[in-house]
């Protein structure tokens, strides 16, 4: 996608520096900053501190972290240390483990002398695959938007609600939930996007920044406004992303997604999840019982960051001094509330049968 007319991915390899460059997302949407990752500690900090965020992007970043580890020391011990160190950064998004496992399997079978080049090549491959997966998700999701548009009066937009940021900033490019929106807009289909703020880190502001940069009409709303809009017929479709999806179709996404799904079910609004296949955890069935939910620092709920009246960054306490802050980062939406899953291979029902029909190779391999 483009920033001020310049094409960017959310991460890219700088051949001249021999290092990975990322967009440091802590400062968005107010300031666009990039950072070079030079050490394995830089990679871990980037993931933990959400300089990079979003399940697909975390996975791609970790793959480059493994490549750096091999460039420093291609031994078996180094490979295992890097896997452990990066795996411990965030517990919920399955793409992290998927990418690390893929790197470990591919590199463990190679002689140490071949690992440096092979690791970097594999990281590039994982990043490029993510771009293509997200483009394909958009192509399939576009058809849903096109169908809704066909039943509307000419010129009336398809009104889509999304939660958190499942845009190109959360992936290598295109995004998951936003990919159908970009493709619909580029196809000339009028759309309007309701963007949840997504407290406590307000990732919806990143979605608004993305959509605005692309010229897509949107409105930034508080998290609790979605149900009201649905009650009044102002939402045609909900599309969210996912950080982990179980084999039966339970969806783990940013905290608050479950409430949106409940409101959508109550008001007959289709609730779809944009699902890249690396985000499926075929080892888990019951998402509520089995997916570990990351508990982040309380300061994210008790304080907010933004631009002060002087134009500089400011952190402000919003909770009373002495009040404890709870901060579960994700919740699980049971499959019964999900209308369908938009994947790179097509759209399926959020059921074991629906998922296995689209991904028979993966389902069988997990048995």
UniProtKB/TrEMBL annotation:
* Any Gene Ontology biological process: L-methionine salvage from methylthioadenosine
Ordered alphabetically, the record's keywords are:
Amino-acid biosynthesis, Isomerase, Methionine biosynthesis
Pathway(s) the chain acts in: Amino-acid biosynthesis; L-methionine biosynthesis via salvage pathway; L-methionine from S-methyl-5-thio-alpha-D-ribose 1-phosphate: step 1/6
**Single GO MF annotation:** S-methyl-5-thioribose-1-phosphate isomerase activity
Enzyme class (EC, first level)? isomerase
Q: Where does substrate bind?
A: 53-55, 90, 203, 253-254
Q: Report the EC number(s), separated by commas if there are several.
A: 5.3.1.23
Asked if the Swiss-Prot or TrEMBL record annotates the protein with the keyword Plastid, the reply is: no
Record-annotated active site: 243
Site (Transition state stabilizer) residue list:
164
Recorded catalytic activity of this chain's protein? 5-(methylsulfanyl)-alpha-D-ribose 1-phosphate = 5-(methylsulfanyl)-D-ribulose 1-phosphate
Q: Member of which family?
A: Belongs to the EIF-2B alpha/beta/delta subunits family. MtnA subfamily.
> What role does it play?
Catalyzes the interconversion of methylthioribose-1-phosphate (MTR-1-P) into methylthioribulose-1-phosphate (MTRu-1-P).
* Protein's recorded name: Methylthioribose-1-phosphate isomerase
Instruction: Supply the gene name.
Output: mtnA
């Amino acid at each position: 996608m483009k920033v001020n007319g310049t094409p960017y991915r959310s991460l890219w390899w700088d051949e001249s520096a021999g290092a990975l460059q990322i967009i440091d997302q802590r400062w968005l949407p107010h300031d666009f900053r990039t950072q070079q990752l030079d050490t394995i500690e830089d990679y871990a900090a980037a993931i933990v501190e959400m300089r990079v965020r979003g399940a697909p992007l975390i996975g791609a970043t970790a793959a480059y972290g493994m490549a750096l580890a091999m460039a420093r020391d291609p031994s078996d011990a180094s490979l295992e240390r890097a896997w452990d160190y990066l795996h411990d950064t965030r517990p919920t998004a399955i793409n992290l483990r998927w990418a690390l496992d893929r790197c470990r399997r591919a590199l463990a079978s190679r002689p140490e002398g071949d690992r440096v080049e092979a690791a970097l090549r594999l990281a590039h491959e994982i990043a490029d695959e993510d771009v293509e997966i997200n483009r394909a998700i958009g192509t399939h999701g576009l058809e849903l938007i096109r169908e809704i548009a066909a039943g509307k009066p000419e010129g009336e937009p398809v009104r889509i609600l999304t939660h958190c940021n499942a845009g190109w900033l959360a992936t290598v490019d295109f995004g998951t939930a936003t990919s159908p929106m970009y493709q619909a807009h580029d196809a000339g289909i009028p759309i309007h996007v309701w963007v949840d703020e997504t407290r406590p880190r307000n990732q919806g502001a990143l979605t608004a920044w993305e959509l605005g940069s692309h010229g897509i009409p949107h409105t930034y709303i508080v998290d609790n406004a979605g149900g009201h809009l649905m009650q009044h017929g102002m939402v045609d479709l909900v599309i969210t992303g996912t950080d982990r999806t179980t084999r039966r179709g339970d969806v783990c996404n940013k905290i608050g997604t479950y409430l949106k799904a409940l409101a959508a079910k109550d008001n007959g609004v289709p609730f779809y999840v944009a699902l890249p296949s690396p985000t499926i955890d075929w080892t888990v069935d019951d998402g509520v019982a089995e997916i570990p939910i990351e508990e982040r620092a309380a300061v994210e709920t008790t304080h907010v960051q933004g631009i002060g009246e002087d134009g500089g960054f400011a952190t402000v306490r919003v909770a009373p001094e002495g009040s404890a802050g709870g901060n579960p980062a994700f919740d699980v939406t049971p499959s019964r509330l999900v209308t369908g899953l938009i994947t790179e291979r097509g759209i399926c029902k959020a059921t074991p049968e629906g998922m296995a029909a689209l991904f028979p190779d993966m389902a069988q391999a997990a048995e």
